[in-house]
Write a structure and sequence with these properties.
By secondary structure, the chain is of the alpha+beta class. The protein has 2 domains: 78 residues, 3-Layer(aba) Sandwich (Glutaredoxin), CATH 3.40.30; 109 residues, Glutathione S-transferase Yfyf (Class Pi), Chain A, domain 2 (Up-down Bundle), CATH 1.20.1050.10. 53% of the residues lie in helices and 8% in strands. It is built from 8 helices and 4 strands, in the order βαβαββαααααα. A 4-stranded mixed beta sheet has the order 2-1-3-4, covered by helices on one side. α4 packs parallel to α6. It is globular.
Amino acid sequence: MYQLYYYPGNANLAPHMLLEEIGADYELVLVDRSRNEQKSAAYLELNPAGRIPVLVDADLVLYESAAICLHLADRHPAAGLAPALGSDERAHFYKWLMYLTNTVQAELLVYFYPERLADEAAAAAQVKAHAESRIGAMLDLIEAALAAGSGPFLLGAQYRAVDAYLLMLCRWTRNLQHPARARPRLGRFLDTVMARAATQRAFAKEGIAAPFY
Protein backbone atom coordinates (compact mmCIF):
# COMPACT_ATOMS: atom_id res chain seq x y z
CA MET A 1 0.00 0.00 0.00
CA TYR A 2 1.24 3.47 -0.87
CA GLN A 3 1.49 6.26 1.68
CA LEU A 4 1.14 9.83 0.41
CA TYR A 5 2.23 12.54 2.81
CA TYR A 6 0.11 15.59 2.05
CA TYR A 7 -1.37 18.90 3.06
CA PRO A 8 -4.65 19.96 1.39
CA GLY A 9 -4.11 21.63 -1.98
CA ASN A 10 -0.31 21.44 -1.89
CA ALA A 11 1.92 19.80 -4.51
CA ASN A 12 0.57 16.43 -3.40
CA LEU A 13 -2.66 17.09 -5.28
CA ALA A 14 -1.42 15.89 -8.68
CA PRO A 15 -0.05 12.56 -7.36
CA HIS A 16 -3.20 12.16 -5.29
CA MET A 17 -5.36 12.54 -8.39
CA LEU A 18 -3.25 9.91 -10.14
CA LEU A 19 -3.58 7.46 -7.25
CA GLU A 20 -7.34 7.81 -7.61
CA GLU A 21 -7.15 7.35 -11.39
CA ILE A 22 -5.09 4.18 -10.93
CA GLY A 23 -7.38 2.82 -8.24
CA ALA A 24 -4.36 2.00 -6.08
CA ASP A 25 -4.56 1.11 -2.42
CA TYR A 26 -3.09 4.06 -0.51
CA GLU A 27 -3.12 5.92 2.78
CA LEU A 28 -3.06 9.69 3.19
CA VAL A 29 -0.74 10.96 5.94
CA LEU A 30 -1.35 14.57 6.93
CA VAL A 31 1.68 16.84 7.30
CA ASP A 32 0.25 19.86 9.10
CA ARG A 33 1.89 22.92 7.55
CA SER A 34 0.06 25.16 10.02
CA ARG A 35 2.26 23.57 12.70
CA ASN A 36 5.35 23.48 10.46
CA GLU A 37 5.40 19.69 10.60
CA GLN A 38 7.21 19.53 7.24
CA LYS A 39 10.27 20.79 9.14
CA SER A 40 10.00 18.23 11.95
CA ALA A 41 12.83 15.77 12.50
CA ALA A 42 10.59 12.83 11.62
CA TYR A 43 9.50 14.33 8.30
CA LEU A 44 13.01 15.49 7.40
CA GLU A 45 14.10 11.87 7.59
CA LEU A 46 11.72 11.22 4.68
CA ASN A 47 12.43 14.42 2.77
CA PRO A 48 15.47 16.39 3.87
CA ALA A 49 14.25 19.33 1.75
CA GLY A 50 11.31 19.72 4.11
CA ARG A 51 8.73 19.93 1.32
CA ILE A 52 5.44 18.20 0.67
CA PRO A 53 4.70 15.59 -0.73
CA VAL A 54 6.45 12.32 -0.05
CA LEU A 55 5.36 8.98 -1.48
CA VAL A 56 6.30 5.78 0.34
CA ASP A 57 6.15 2.71 -1.89
CA ALA A 58 7.34 -0.26 0.21
CA ASP A 59 11.07 0.41 0.67
CA LEU A 60 11.08 3.32 -1.77
CA VAL A 61 10.76 6.82 -0.31
CA LEU A 62 10.25 9.37 -3.07
CA TYR A 63 9.84 13.14 -3.04
CA GLU A 64 9.36 15.79 -5.72
CA SER A 65 5.83 15.81 -7.09
CA ALA A 66 6.80 15.41 -10.75
CA ALA A 67 9.01 12.43 -9.92
CA ILE A 68 6.16 10.84 -7.98
CA CYS A 69 3.81 11.34 -10.94
CA LEU A 70 6.31 9.71 -13.31
CA HIS A 71 6.85 6.81 -10.90
CA LEU A 72 3.12 6.15 -10.58
CA ALA A 73 2.64 6.30 -14.35
CA ASP A 74 5.49 3.83 -14.87
CA ARG A 75 4.44 1.55 -12.01
CA HIS A 76 0.90 1.28 -13.41
CA PRO A 77 1.20 1.30 -17.22
CA ALA A 78 -2.29 -0.14 -17.68
CA ALA A 79 -3.73 3.13 -16.37
CA GLY A 80 -2.44 4.91 -19.49
CA LEU A 81 -1.14 7.93 -17.58
CA ALA A 82 1.95 8.22 -19.81
CA PRO A 83 2.49 7.47 -23.52
CA ALA A 84 4.61 4.54 -24.68
CA LEU A 85 8.34 4.74 -24.02
CA GLY A 86 10.29 5.91 -27.05
CA SER A 87 7.28 7.45 -28.77
CA ASP A 88 7.05 11.04 -29.97
CA GLU A 89 4.11 11.52 -27.63
CA ARG A 90 6.26 10.38 -24.71
CA ALA A 91 8.80 13.06 -25.62
CA HIS A 92 6.07 15.70 -25.54
CA PHE A 93 4.88 14.26 -22.23
CA TYR A 94 8.35 14.84 -20.77
CA LYS A 95 8.46 18.32 -22.28
CA TRP A 96 5.23 19.40 -20.66
CA LEU A 97 5.94 17.85 -17.29
CA MET A 98 9.35 19.54 -17.16
CA TYR A 99 7.85 22.86 -18.26
CA LEU A 100 5.17 22.66 -15.61
CA THR A 101 7.45 21.76 -12.72
CA ASN A 102 10.64 23.64 -13.67
CA THR A 103 9.11 26.80 -15.13
CA VAL A 104 5.47 27.36 -14.11
CA GLN A 105 5.67 25.87 -10.62
CA ALA A 106 8.99 27.58 -9.92
CA GLU A 107 7.51 30.96 -10.89
CA LEU A 108 4.43 30.35 -8.76
CA LEU A 109 6.71 29.81 -5.77
CA VAL A 110 8.30 33.21 -6.47
CA TYR A 111 4.79 34.72 -6.57
CA PHE A 112 3.74 33.13 -3.27
CA TYR A 113 7.02 33.70 -1.43
CA PRO A 114 8.53 36.96 -2.79
CA GLU A 115 10.08 37.71 0.59
CA ARG A 116 12.63 34.99 -0.13
CA LEU A 117 14.10 37.23 -2.85
CA ALA A 118 13.80 40.66 -1.23
CA ASP A 119 14.49 42.16 2.18
CA GLU A 120 12.05 45.07 2.07
CA ALA A 121 8.27 44.95 1.66
CA ALA A 122 8.26 47.26 -1.36
CA ALA A 123 10.86 45.15 -3.13
CA ALA A 124 8.95 41.97 -2.31
CA ALA A 125 5.79 43.51 -3.80
CA GLN A 126 7.70 44.29 -6.98
CA VAL A 127 9.05 40.72 -7.17
CA LYS A 128 5.49 39.41 -6.75
CA ALA A 129 4.13 41.67 -9.48
CA HIS A 130 6.82 40.63 -11.96
CA ALA A 131 6.22 36.96 -11.13
CA GLU A 132 2.50 37.36 -11.79
CA SER A 133 3.26 38.89 -15.19
CA ARG A 134 5.57 36.01 -16.11
CA ILE A 135 3.01 33.43 -14.94
CA GLY A 136 0.46 35.08 -17.20
CA ALA A 137 2.74 34.67 -20.20
CA MET A 138 3.25 31.00 -19.33
CA LEU A 139 -0.49 30.43 -19.10
CA ASP A 140 -0.90 32.15 -22.48
CA LEU A 141 1.62 29.70 -23.94
CA ILE A 142 -0.34 26.73 -22.58
CA GLU A 143 -3.59 28.27 -23.82
CA ALA A 144 -2.11 28.49 -27.33
CA ALA A 145 -0.91 24.88 -27.16
CA LEU A 146 -4.39 23.69 -26.18
CA ALA A 147 -5.89 25.72 -29.02
CA ALA A 148 -3.48 24.11 -31.52
CA GLY A 149 -3.96 20.60 -30.17
CA SER A 150 -6.26 17.79 -31.24
CA GLY A 151 -8.16 17.22 -28.04
CA PRO A 152 -9.20 18.60 -24.69
CA PHE A 153 -5.96 17.57 -22.95
CA LEU A 154 -2.35 18.72 -23.26
CA LEU A 155 -1.36 15.74 -25.41
CA GLY A 156 -4.62 15.42 -27.30
CA ALA A 157 -7.58 13.13 -26.74
CA GLN A 158 -6.27 11.06 -23.83
CA TYR A 159 -5.92 12.11 -20.21
CA ARG A 160 -2.33 11.85 -18.96
CA ALA A 161 -0.41 12.58 -15.77
CA VAL A 162 0.57 16.02 -17.08
CA ASP A 163 -3.09 17.02 -17.07
CA ALA A 164 -3.37 16.38 -13.33
CA TYR A 165 -0.24 18.46 -12.85
CA LEU A 166 -1.62 21.30 -14.94
CA LEU A 167 -4.88 21.35 -13.01
CA MET A 168 -2.96 21.53 -9.73
CA LEU A 169 -0.90 24.52 -10.89
CA CYS A 170 -3.89 26.27 -12.46
CA ARG A 171 -5.68 25.97 -9.12
CA TRP A 172 -2.84 27.92 -7.55
CA THR A 173 -3.54 30.83 -9.93
CA ARG A 174 -7.14 31.22 -8.79
CA ASN A 175 -6.48 34.51 -6.95
CA LEU A 176 -4.37 36.13 -9.66
CA GLN A 177 -5.85 39.09 -11.51
CA HIS A 178 -6.05 36.95 -14.68
CA PRO A 179 -6.22 33.33 -13.47
CA ALA A 180 -5.94 30.28 -15.67
CA ARG A 181 -9.71 29.76 -15.71
CA ALA A 182 -10.20 33.12 -17.46
CA ARG A 183 -8.65 31.76 -20.67
CA PRO A 184 -11.20 29.97 -22.90
CA ARG A 185 -9.24 26.78 -23.66
CA LEU A 186 -7.76 26.49 -20.20
CA GLY A 187 -11.17 27.10 -18.68
CA ARG A 188 -12.65 24.22 -20.67
CA PHE A 189 -9.64 22.05 -19.87
CA LEU A 190 -10.11 22.67 -16.14
CA ASP A 191 -13.82 21.87 -16.32
CA THR A 192 -13.06 18.64 -18.21
CA VAL A 193 -10.46 17.42 -15.72
CA MET A 194 -12.55 18.48 -12.74
CA ALA A 195 -15.48 16.44 -14.08
CA ARG A 196 -13.47 13.23 -13.75
CA ALA A 197 -14.61 11.06 -10.84
CA ALA A 198 -11.01 10.47 -9.71
CA THR A 199 -10.35 14.21 -9.55
CA GLN A 200 -13.47 14.78 -7.51
CA ARG A 201 -12.54 12.00 -5.07
CA ALA A 202 -9.06 13.45 -4.54
CA PHE A 203 -10.44 16.94 -3.90
CA ALA A 204 -13.03 15.54 -1.49
CA LYS A 205 -10.49 13.48 0.45
CA GLU A 206 -8.27 16.54 0.87
CA GLY A 207 -11.26 18.59 2.00
CA ILE A 208 -10.87 21.12 -0.82
CA ALA A 209 -14.02 23.16 -1.26
CA ALA A 210 -15.18 25.28 -4.19
CA PRO A 211 -14.08 27.45 -5.87
CA PHE A 212 -11.70 24.76 -7.06
CA TYR A 213 -9.79 26.99 -9.50
